Amino acid sequence: MPHRCPTCQERELDTLATLPYVRGFLIAYQIGTKKFIGCRPCVRKSIFKEVGLSAVVGWFSITALIINPFLLVYGVFRGAVLSPDPAAVRKALAEAGLPPDDAGVDIVHIAYGLAAAMIAADGKIERDEVSAAIRIGATLFEGFEADALLRLLQRPKDLPDPVGLAGVLAQVLDEPQKLAVYRYLEAIAGADGEVSADEAALLQCVHSRLALDPQLVAA
Ligand SMILES: [Zn+2]
Q1: pLDDT tens digits along 103-124
Q2: What is the widest separation between alpha-carbon atoms in the chain?
Q3: Residue 98 contacts residue 113 (beta carbons within 8 Å)
Q4: What fold is seen in the domain 87-218?
Q5: pLDDT tens, residue by residue, 180-196
Q6: Which residues form the signal peptide (predicted)?
Q7: Beta strand extents in the chain (DSSP E only)
Q8: Were 29 and a residue from 61, 120, 182, 205 both cysteine, which residue would form a disulfide, CB within 3.0 to 4.6 Å?
């Protein structure tokens, strides 16, 4: 059975898109990509929302000033030509541990996929985060293999974004499994002694997309 869109949870999950963006900080700038997975209306909406944001905040360095118009045009174009791409969706989900028919979902593979997606979400793969993910993963999941996680982190572009992935996992996992992977992400984020604002915001999005029972998590 095909998965449903992680955003609306109604229409079929049939496409994904990668969108480059630039943010300037006076003399420095940052280029990154955002990934969206879902039904076409939801992905298109996410792309145009991102383009709108870039139109406001994508200008604040000389380089960003030069690059941003191209990225804005690309974003509008990308949103306009969005077509179904079930093969790419299947590939991204399989990479994250979800076989096409949901047969034999293995919680350890899900943990690798979600942890790798979260570690790669900010565009940089930090060694401390990776070693924390390995250390904590080995204590939480039976049969956890560091190599499997490291393999995923070698090609983070193949993974879906963690929030979209969480929305799909909500359809597949039972409550204890959802809680187990969420606790894992929480532990990785807190491994360096503090959870940054970005990490907290990401955890909050993942939590809500997993549709976890709020009382279970507060415990
Ligand atoms: Zn949707």
Answers
A1: 778 899 999 999 999 998 877 8
A2: 51
A3: yes
A4: TerB-like (1.10.3680)
A5: 999 999 999 988 888 88
A6: none
A7: 15-25, 28-38
A8: 61
Cα(65) to ligand 1 centroid in Å equals 33
Those residues whose C-beta lies under 8 Å from the C-beta of residue 137, and which sit 6 or more positions away, are 111, 112, 115, 144, 146, 149, 184
Q: What are phi and psi of 32, to 5 degrees?
A: -145, 180
Measure 90 CA to ligand 1 centroid, in angstroms: 16
Residues whose beta carbons lie less than 5 angstroms from ion ligand 1: 5, 7-8, 11, 38-39, 42
* C-alpha 46 – ligand 1 centre gap (Å): 10
Question: CB of 111 within 8 A of CB of 137?
Answer: yes
Reported ipTM: the value is 0.99
Q: What's the rounded Cα separation, in Å, for the pair 139 and 136?
A: 5
Q: How far is the CA of 120 from the centre of ligand 1 (A)?
A: 24
| pLDDT (mean) for 194-211 | 92
Q: Enter the tokens of residue 108.
A: 């350890």
- Give exposure, 115-143, as e/b (b: 16+ Cβ within 10 Å): bbbbbbbeeeeeeebbebbbebbeebbee
